[in-house]
Structure formats: structure tokens, C-alpha cells
Write a structure and sequence with these properties.
By secondary structure, the protein is mainly α. The protein contains five helices and two strands; from the N terminus they run H-H-E-E-H-H-H. The chain folds into two domains: 1-40; 47-150, Cytochrome Bc1 Complex, Chain D, domain 2, CATH 1.10.760.10. The protein has helices at residues 7-40, 48-59, 82-85, 92-104, 123-137; strands at 67-68, 71-72. Helix 4 packs across helix 5 (123-137).
Amino acid sequence: MSERLTKTAARNVFYGGSAFFFAIFIGLTAHSHLYMKNVSTNEATLTESVARGKRIWERNSCINCHTLLGEGAYFAPELGNVWKRWGGDADPEGAREMLKAWMAAQPSGIEGRRQMPQFNLTDQEVRDLADFLEWTSKINTQKWPPNDAG
């Protein structure tokens, strides 16, 4: 038996291995898409106010300072679980009022603290943003962020 790998055998190993791993890649990609669509998020709970809240999030470039589910800048707190931190699951109206008061109080003017700008959002825009953050908090994030503080 020859101990050398012939060109033909090397080519067959390359093409066979490439095809095998490409098939695995396609399978994992399909699995990821199905997981995101069917398990991770609940598409049925998407409402027009959630979509408007997402547009407010994008229009004001909140992701330039905050993270949302681990994506974005690490300048300001993670907001993927802010709804739960503010007690929105137990008292949704209280969490909405907390967000409204927080947004109205910005910039806080505390010495030595990074300042969030005043966006002058209307009551409806704050409500839509709260709906978006509530919807985001219900995404199956597989325990992200790793702590409650965000």
C-alpha cells in the first residue's frame, strides 16, 4: 500500500470535505433561521406600536450609546432587560411612567456622569418606545444579559 497521497486522492478529499462541511453549514443556517422565527421571538405579538417604537429607537440612534440584546455601543446600559428591571412585568403602567419620567429628566446634570440628551419625545412616542422595550424583553435571549443590571 502506498504511503503517498496521490493528486486524485487529495482532490477527492478536498471536494468531499468541502461538500460535507457546506452541507453542515446550510443545515445550521436553516436551523438558526427557524429557531429565530419560531422560538426566539413571538411574531404574533408584534403590533404597530412596537414597530413605531423601533423606528423611534432607530431615528434617535439609541444604539450609538446603549446596547440592545448585546448589540450596540457599551457607553450606556443594556436596555434588553430594562422592562423587567423597572418592574414592567408586575406593573406595566408603572414602568411606562418610569420611562416617561426618565426621558423627561434628561439630561440629568449630575456632575461627572455621562449625559443622555433630551429627545423631546411626545407622550405617544414614549408609549411606543415602551411597547418596543416591553416586546424586546420577552425575546428568548438564552440568559442574555448575564446579570440583571444589564
